Amino acid sequence: MAVLASCPAYVTGLFSIAEGDAAGAGFAIDKSLTTTVSEKKSGRTTITINGVESPVPVSRAVLRRFASLSGRMGLLEISHETEVPIGFGLGMSAAGALSLSLALNEFLGAGL
After folding, report:
1. What does the angle CA 62 – CA 66 – CA 69 come to, to the nearest 5 degrees?
2. CB of 73 within 8 A of CB of 105?
3. 65 CB neighbour count, 10 Å cutoff
4. How does pLDDT run across 10-39, given as a tens digit for each residue?
5. Percentage of the residues of the chain whose pLDDT score is greater than 70
6. Among residues 4, 3, 77, 76, which one has the least CA distance to residue 34?
7. pLDDT tens digits, residue range 32-54?
């Protein structure tokens, strides 16, 4: 079983980080990031962006949180696909986090 979820890219105009919180303003664009979550039979959990394995700290944080909430995770193959450049303030980390959260919630039946 594979579960897909997507989230639009977002151009950040204003952004502020405070202790344990963040706030910002901007607008969404017509491009998105789609995440697919599927089970693996062996090996280790992998996360790719456009087919290339990546450290993806934000997605790994989402995985850790779901593992602690659900108490189960298993081996997963997580694929992020996007036409939008990564690392240019277009909200791709947030899009990856949200789409992964939606996909994991459905995949695990977490009910969040």
Report:
1. 140
2. no
3. 13
4. 887 787 888 888 888 888 888 899 999 999
5. 99
6. 4
7. 999 999 999 999 999 999 999 99
For residue 55, which phi and psi values (nearest 5 degrees)?
-65, -35
> What is the rounded distance in angstroms from the CA atom of residue 34 to the CA atom of residue 96?
8
Which token pair is 66?
Answer: 């779901």
Closest by CA to 64, choosing from 38, 97, 93, is 97
Q: Cα 49–109–50 angle (5° rounding)?
A: 10
Residue 53: what are its φ and ψ, rounded to 5°?
-65, 140
